[in-house]
Design a protein that fits this description.
The protein is an alpha+beta fold and about 450 residues long. It folds into four domains: about 30 residues; about 120 residues, Nuclear Transport Factor 2, Chain: A (Roll); about 100 residues, Roll (Nuclear Transport Factor 2, Chain: A), CATH 3.10.450.350; about 120 residues, Distorted Sandwich (Glucose Permease (Domain IIA)), CATH 2.70.70. Helix content is about 20%, strand content about 35%. The chain is built from six helices and 26 strands. Strands 14, 17, 19, 20, 21, 23, 25 and 26 form an eight-stranded antiparallel beta sheet that branches. Strands 3-4-5-6-7-8 form a six-stranded antiparallel beta sheet, covered by helices on one side. Strands 9-10-11-12-13 form a five-stranded antiparallel beta sheet, sandwiched between helices. α2 runs antiparallel to α3. The chain is elongated, with a radius of gyration of 36 Å. About 10% of the residues have low confidence.
Length: about 450
């Protein structure tokens, strides 16, 4: 055995034992400290497949509460959707697995369009954990998603089979009121904005008085306005949506006019003066808000043709694209193009007596076509300068029994006033509003 082979056999243990010891130490490290220490059972699957546990959302362990659905402790994460971030990206950044995210998104998409979510949206994620601990090694999985919008709340909850079930419910909103008043110095619009109103409120205010008031001729500096409007806040006190004007008053030419909103029930509401008379007439005095009359009815020198001829309507100067409302309820008759005259125009037949025409349009509103029924004030077109026109404006005509008349001198019929029980109910509503105005001004 004193050969070279014998010397090799004698020295073999000195090599094998250190190698075996290294393998043993490596296996101890690998199973106790390596990546497999994070392998856990996936509740999303029905087999024994494994997934890797991810990091807990926050470096500071969140507080633990008890989830009533699965009787397991849960970790919650209150997140905010960032600008340019998708819902899927938010879930990914919150360490939600792709499989969980797809299951949740599929469920929510059945009841809500996730594309409607905007930056700043609050989203609550809840993760169930398998142990009463908050360490980074705690096994967890997505259990519930809650999305709060201004009008509703959407919840997606994990079911026993690992899939999600989503439902949507209306948000509980609280009604509040806002009183706004002021005096006109330049224009009603600028005065109302300074007093705290927004553009939509001013437009609605003008619309209410457009049946009886010519805002170009009747309004003067020093005239007073006031109105009471509603708005709704969510559970966090954030304004969810604007409501309606429930009272409005305008003092013009020394005469005060007050208007009250009255709900007849089943969503049927309208506006009346203090005596219960409807403010509405068959047609509006003007079909466009805030525009000035640039050319009246009668003989005039045509700006393009260069000679005098009859102008059978009123011209309202306004920026291109300004919305034009239907002067009254009716049916769209014609939508036509006349390059050498009206340009793009449309007509609305309101009844057997009245028809209105709107010309030099930029474009027709979406969904407006011959035979379409429209409501008073509904946007039907937009101001333009098509046809024989030198600048953007609306050419507006009123036809009585097929004959053009001066729109400024037409006396339109009124809607019948309230009577009997409806009038009594209206007076009670009016008294409550008056009391609210007194509290707001005191």
């Amino acid at each position: 055995m004193d050969t070279t082979f014998g010397r090799y056999i004698k020295g073999l243990p000195l090599v094998i034992f250190p190698m075996l010891l290294m393998v043993l130490l490596f296996n101890i490290w690998f199973y106790h400290y390596g990546p497999l220490r994070h392998r856990i059972y996936s509740p999303l699957t029905n087999d024994d497949s494994l997934i890797y546990e991810r990091e807990i959302l926050s470096e500071t362990p969140p507080s633990i509460s008890l989830d009533n659905t699965n009787n397991l402790p849960v970790l919650s994460a209150d997140l905010t959707l960032q600008k340019g971030q998708t819902f899927s990206q938010l879930l990914s950044n919150a360490n939600v697995t792709k499989q969980e995210a797809l299951a949740a998104i599929k469920s929510i998409s059945k009841v809500f369009k996730l594309a409607q979510l905007q930056a700043g949206q609050k989203i609550l994620l809840e993760f169930a954990i398998n142990e009463q601990e908050t360490s980074k090694n705690a096994a967890r999985y997505l259990d519930k998603i809650t999305i709060y919008t201004s009008a509703s709340s959407i919840k997606a909850i994990r079911q026993a089979n690992g899939l999600f079930k989503a439902d949507i419910s209306k948000a509980i909103l609280q009604e509040k009121r806002r009183y706004i008043s002021g005096r006109i110095s330049g224009s009603l619009y600028s005065a109302a904005i300074r007093a705290g109103a927004n553009a939509n409120m001013v437009a609605n205010f003008i619309k209410l008085f457009s049946y009886t008031t010519d805002f170009q001729r009747d309004i003067k500096a020093g005239d007073k306005f006031e109105f009471l409007t509603t708005y709704y806040v969510d559970q966090n006190g954030k304004i969810a949506r604007e409501g309606e004007i429930i009272y409005a008053s305008l003092c013009a030419n020394g005469k005060a006019k007050s208007i009250y909103r009255f709900d007849k029930g089943k969503g049927d509401f309208d506006y009346f003066d203090q005596h219960g008379n409807s403010i509405k007439k068959t047609l509006l005095r003007t079909p466009i808000n805030g525009a000035r009359v640039s050319s009246g009815y009668g003989m005039r020198r045509h700006p393009i043709l260069g000679y005098s001829r009859m102008h059978k309507g009123l011209d309202y100067a306004a920026p291109r694209g300004t919305p034009i409302g239907a002067a009254g309820d009716g049916v769209v008759q014609f939508v036509r193009m006349q390059p050498n005259g009206y340009g793009k125009y449309l007509t609305i037949k309101h009844n057997n007596k009245y028809t209105t025409l709107y010309a030099h349009l930029d474009r027709i509103a979406k969904g407006i076509y011959p035979g379409k029924k429209v409501k008073q004030g509904e946007v039907v077109a937009y101001v333009g300068s098509s046809g024989m026109s030198t600048a953007p404006h609306l050419h507006y005509e009123v036809l009585v029994m097929g004959k053009q008349v001066n729109p400024a001198k037409v006396s339109f019929a009124k809607i019948p006033p309230l009577k009997g029980r409806e009038l009594e109910k209206f007076q009670k509503t009016k008294n409550l509003v008056d009391s609210s105005i007194v509290r707001s001004t005191s």
